[in-house]
Amino acid sequence: MLQPSLNAASKWILRNTLISNESLTPEFKFHLITIATPLWMSTPDECPLPDPYWAFYWPGGQGLSRFILDNQKMFNGSKILDFGAGCGSASMAASVSGAKKILANDIDKYALLSTKLNFRLNNLKDSKIQYSSVNFLDDKNQTAPSNFFKNSESNGNFVLLGDMFYDSDFAEILFGWLKKIQNQHGTRVLVGDPDRHPLVETDYLKRYKTKFTKTQLAEYSLPGYVIKEHYGFNTAKVFELNFQL
To answer: Which family does it belong to (predicted)?
Structure first.
């Protein structure tokens, strides 16, 4: 599939999504594909942008962003790596909360474009945001997060992840990378998730080679329309992960 230019993609997003603030963070608006848009029931060939997951505000991202907004002192002056940024909600929440520096990372360049459009939609400046589509899980790209976090106090470093634990094989890779980042830089790892199996089921957790403890920091009841749009998940939880040395 030929991929549109960023300019063409931007026009397509503005034309085919709906501006919505129906979420756990009603103070933010997003360009989204919702039940009210024709694309909700469309086939992949009707969308020129591959797998536009960034046009959905997933439950874990909603919970994580709500937690940031509700605990702004925790993130004031911090360095934030928003891994798998998607629609950019966590980066937006961190920016509003006074984060000093934010690295919005997503391997899909259109997700980063969506993030920029959502910042603009909310009249938020993104001058302290760095955008990167580099795959940080690739060994040859390991230095990028390290360079971002170096020369900063460890208690002010965060890696944020929303809705990333949908597959146990991918989760295993992700846990190994997060452990390395945490051990090197003392980063706090915060996860937003609606209790997907790879993150909560005991059988999965026992099989992972990378061991960690999981502390629940918050739980939010999802509004009815969010439950309907997201496969019946009815809560979003925020966890902190601490990896064993």
So the answer is: Belongs to the methyltransferase superfamily. ETFBKMT family.
